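=== Structure Prediction Worksheet ===
Name of assembly: unnamed complex
Input type: mixed (protein and possibly other molecules)
Chain count: two
Listed entries:
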Amino acid sequence: MAAITWEVAEGVAVVTLDCPGAPVNVISQAVKDEVYAMLLALERDPNVRAVAFFSGKADNFIAGADIEEFVQLKSAAEAEQLSRDGQAMLDRVAQFSKPIAVGVHGACLGGGLEFAMACHYRVATDHPKTQLGLPEVQLGILPGASGCQRLPRLIGARAALDIILAGRSERAAKALRLGMVDEVVPPSILRDVTIAAARRMADRGVMLRRRRGGLMGLLLDGNPLGRLLVFRLARKQVLSQTKGNYPAPLAALEAVRHGLTHGMAAGLQREARLFGELAVGDVSRKLVQIFFATRDLKKDFGVPDAPSPAEVRRLGIVGSGFMGSGIAGTAVVQAGVDVRLKDSDLPRVAKGIIAARAIVDERLTRRRISRYEHARLVALLSGGDSYAGFGGAGLVIEAVFEELEVKRQVLRECEAILPAGAVFATNTSTIPIARIAEVARRPEQVIGMHFFSPVARMPLLEVIPSGSTAPQTVSTAVGFGRRLGKTVIVVRDAPGFWVNRILGPYMNEAAHLLLSGVGAEDIDRAMVRFGFPVGPITLLDEVGLDVAQHAGEVLEGAFGERLAPPKALAAMVKDGRLGRKAGKGFFTYRGGKKGPVDSSVYPLLGVQPNGGIPTADIVQRLMYAMLNEAARAVAEGVVHTPRDGDIGAIYGFGFPPFRGGPLRYFDDQGADHVYADLSRLAERLGPRFEPCPAIVELARARKRFYP
Amino acid sequence: MAFPNGRRVAIVAGCRTPFCKAGTVLKDARAVDLARHAARELVERTNLDPAKVDEVIFGQVVASPLVPNIAREVSLLPQFPKEIPAFSVNRACASSNQAITAAHDQIAQGHADVILAGGAEALSDIPILASRRLSDILVTASKARTLGARLATFARIRPRDLVPVAPAIAEPSTGQSMGQSAEKMAKENRITRDAQDRWTLRSHQLAAKGTADGRLTAEIAPWLPQRAGGEVVVSDNGIRSDTTLEQMAKLKPVFDRRYGSVTAANSSPLTDGASAVLLMAEDVARALGYEALAYIRSYAVAAVDPGWQLLQAPVWAVPKALERAGIQWKDLGLIEIHEAFASQVLSNLQGFAEKGWEINEEIINVMGGSIAIGHPFGATGGRLVTTLSNEMKRRDVQFGLISVCAQGGMASAVVLERR
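=== Predicted Assembly ===
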């Protein structure tokens, strides 16, 4: 079946792209062939004076190039050729003898935007789903079908780099302001306006646009010297953000620069060559794997033959503290559900609602919602000191104090008032779900939902069924987690679940290093260079030392000496150094901003920084501590697949995405190497590094986590 | 029965915001915010499926030009389906009575099964108008075609045009303010200052008791602060448990400083607040599993010449309602009389007594009245229906009466029955 069809009316060929059997349009080889065929036919058709191009999908224009084709690429040369092919097709579009106008509604990304830019007039709808952007660098590549050339020529180097280097997409209003599109109209008249534009161009010729941008535009984009400054600043920014771990933004920068300096043809050539190199590079491969893993995870409800999730229209939240209010605000903003908060007294409830509202306010401040939408969302938040309103809740999430009896009491109270089918979810990081569910009358409707803090920002959610949780309950919890915009992994009800379980030994090892005299800043610097967003010592301060201590004790209680946090850390908690929230921890804080290491920490811990050890040793000790525990947890079935484990680590605590996750990292190191290194570390530092049976077995059988 | 062909209408539940003196804790809320709060909390408390609501009717006296139909904004709460029609009514201080009786008629006639009725007023947020000349100039300027013409129009503005106009609580037909009318009634009906102050004291003491024992607070949906550091309001803030006759005696009369008797104490204060009442057809309430607090037995309205005794119309409305109910004054077990002014309450009671009706203060305003609790014009009727029906249930009283006087020389009376 053809993806491209058209009909000619009054001199305008109205073309529709509708990739058969797919939810969105992507530019595949087949589509490219059809584009060529279409252009040839339209060129020859004397009745056609202009072309108006649309998508046949409901809320999607073109999502990008076909990634499935992209992953088949074997060599840089092959990838370069793919880029050249795309460029050639779009050159044909741009040079077409008859004017082409596109009407854009829905996502217009990557290859889709490159196509739209090659056309002669762009109309976009003012619908929130209409987004235009070039997200290629997020997959470790660059816009390789002339995007690095066309965008800066369309909107100026500065604005183009903003979009290309961050892989960002813009809403229609912003796209209009930047000059990415020529007009923004309501969806109802997109077709008419686009066709009229096509006809106008046929009558009067293609209008040359004057680039906007004012004086700054002239000073920075309009002359070589200004551009030099722009590129230098952009490069600096990229390096500070990527720490040199991601080659794509720098390559894209180079493609843009080369094109603006040496002309379009040379730019295209450079763009294709760089695309070829990136496409088969390790970083891109890893990022694409994560892309696919995340996509697959969205369809996986963590139980076989998952029933479809129950629709949750009203959410009850018990406990309006930091977690509860974070969940409330996120639920309102992301899922638009009615939220009822309950806490023991009204001032607490009020505080929770105000905190939740701040999350909604932020959307308004960032102009993501109108003030009318803001008012509607705010009206979804309410609360009280009784369970009034819980009778209509499809899901209750409790986020009360981490104490078994308190949580059990809340469960009992909720069961008394909730409708029969409602799910009771407990937000805990340390208490086994089964222990809480013991007191339930309907244990099959009790489940764990482990949110990460701050809820509005952290992308991961661990869903934890107990032994008696029903599949329906699991899929409802997972489905709701997705509506909250979270990436959800379903994990086993074992102490620490997945994320904290593997983070525990990593944090412990950081503390061991600290106590052996390695400077806190050295440890952090090593791990940030490795690719973590923050180092472990900073993370301790952020999480709170008391919280970390409690989590550590739970893991030690469950798994013994192996996961015991160094005892000296208790001195920090005793001294009131709880981290950022207390205004003092390992680092100093002034006015909410983190300062240098608090030097009085070392005497408190009874150590003297001694210059420490090589960075590689820091990384090895921390990572291997994590890998050893991760392998053990995988063997215990804490995560269903290595995919879930890697995604959990990446979204849960920022494991460097370009390394693909801890289990991919393990595979890259090789089981035999990990085994050997762990054995050496165990000899030197103690039995906590003793390779776990799973690693012994992997090394023996020369196996990997991933096939 | 008063409505032999209609369905009986049940009062299922009611709730309200705290009533707070204008310019105090609720001063940042708009009437619509208060109305939505009361409505929403009523839905929460009753666990009502919002899709069951057929209509929303709200009363308001001083409507904001920005929210001309407050009821529709209530029915557009995100908890409700967007397809619930809504209208707003204004029968002055009896506006929420009007909302409730209109709801009654819709249900009785079978046009609706479930209606959310109530009222709201934010006297902290009354619309301040521009002078007529200034608005004329602004309108002309907006039509001007050139900058020059526009500037020329603006040049006509004189300083006195910039003085804003605040709506007064005065009769458009007579120019008499409410207070002046109350003063007139006190004089013509020979209601003494002492009697007024004693009624006022009674109102505060009973309201304080009703608050302390939780009967009044039970009908209040606490107002939560909108900003950090704000206070949670759980009860009405005009009730003074510690006031004394001596303290009140010190106050100067406001409307007639020489011979007057109406003071700030023995008048109801300007108040912010909202109320909401859930009404259902008797059979529908039963089918949905709700137990009615009371049923509406009858109602009546009446009006007198505003130039005579502005607030004396209850003396006409109440007999009509009783007659329609087919009962007599002595059958009433509880009575709620709106207290705009103590002089008005005592005038009304005097009027009732002149009909040969025995006045038993034991059953009148048993939790105080508007003087102590406050009087957000559009919301008072909803409060009275809520208070009365709850208390009828507590005391298992068969018949109860609500009597509300209103601006324009009007009054509304409603008879409730328990079974």
